[in-house]
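Structure tokens please, single chain.
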Amino acid sequence: MEKRAKRNKEGRPGRSLSLILWCVFSLFALLVVVVFVLVQNALVVRQFRENTFKILREANERMSAEIATSQSSSQLERRLINIANDYGLTVALFYEDGESVYPLTEQTDYGALAASLREQRDAGRMSTFLISERDGQVALASATAVGGQPAFLYLSASMQGNLDLEAGLKWMSVITALVAVVLAFVVSGFVSASVTRPVTEVTARAQELARGNYQISFRKDYYCAEIRELSDALDHARVEISKADKMQKELIANVSHDFKTPLTMIKAYASMIREISGDNKQKRDAHAKVIIDECDRLTMLVSDMLDLSKLRAGMNAEEKRSVFNLSEEVCAVTERFSYLSETEGYRIETDIADGLYIRANKERIAQVFYNLIGNAVNYTGADKRVRVKLFVKGQNARFEVIDSGKGIPADEVDTIWDRYYRSGASHKRPVSGTGLGLSIVKNILLQHDCPFGVISEQGKGSCFWAEFPLVTDEWEDVRGDSRAKEDV
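Here you go.
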């Protein structure tokens, strides 16, 4: 059951990015609209109330000033009515017993209200202004005196406008929200489609690439910088994968040929021994030597392929690293080619600095030197001259091997390290090889983080080089130990 549930979970398709973006944009837009409407309603209603309270205070101040300075009763009544009309308010002026001073409103008896105001004033709870809000009215009352008698000035304003405004804003909010939601759905759908269209297109092309179509191309004109970078990366990957696929096919073809040729010869000469030269020792030995040589060739090819596979897999990358004398190692490897000077007339010139120490896998580095020198011997010019150099460059020891051959074409310089490279099938090689030497060199140097390269010009030969970081703290100790052994 657990396996089935896990399989169903893994096989379940994910939600569309376009749908996710559409939902997110729509919900976000809806949330923004709702928050905006609520805040707007609250602010508008609050502002309306504050304006009403401000009007009441201003009208109260003006009326109180008129009451305090007016000498004429009829003039005061007229002024109070004018001020009330200016602000759209209802005004009442009455004594402590509730009797109206002037008939400013239809109501003439304010006994209950006067008693309540008098009680608050006597208890000390009544401030200069008393604002109350009830029954859709906002009221403001203050204590005053008319003709030397205590009185109360009472102003009120209807809140019906505020209630109508709130109701209107609610309906307006509903309509605005509906319109905004519809627009949000439409706009978010358009935006999500615009955002996901390039992703969908790049995904489709990447799937074509995964199916082995290396002719597919990725657009570079997307408006989104991230999509352009993704497209560039996938296009670069396409080029590299195409190169790797081509090199793999070429490797298989070349290796198959190299296996087929010696196997054919082994079979042919074995048949000749059985059928023709079995009783003739001289011929039998010659035929047997061909079989042994071809077997050695197969062994070398298999060995190089195994080494290359291990190096590319990073196996034993840190194994057997130690500090050793690089100068002595270069001399030792170069000495292995001295037989070519005696038998083939090759000139191997050396310029090797003494006492250079590095920390590395000694056997692997020796393999680098052997492959590079052997490659130079195989491809040097008619003068059969090869130069081997080792010298200090900055903090590194630089190894160079220079031949005088035809050089490497410019379009092959960057690929000779990654392919089953052989320049010229008819070239006679004094040093046997499998064509994998440079790939092995590359992977060994990459494992040691050592820079390397080739400088070549057609018609003037090639210079293969590699640099190795010199040891510092342990250099003197190792060199001292070597000298002590030599003295003994």
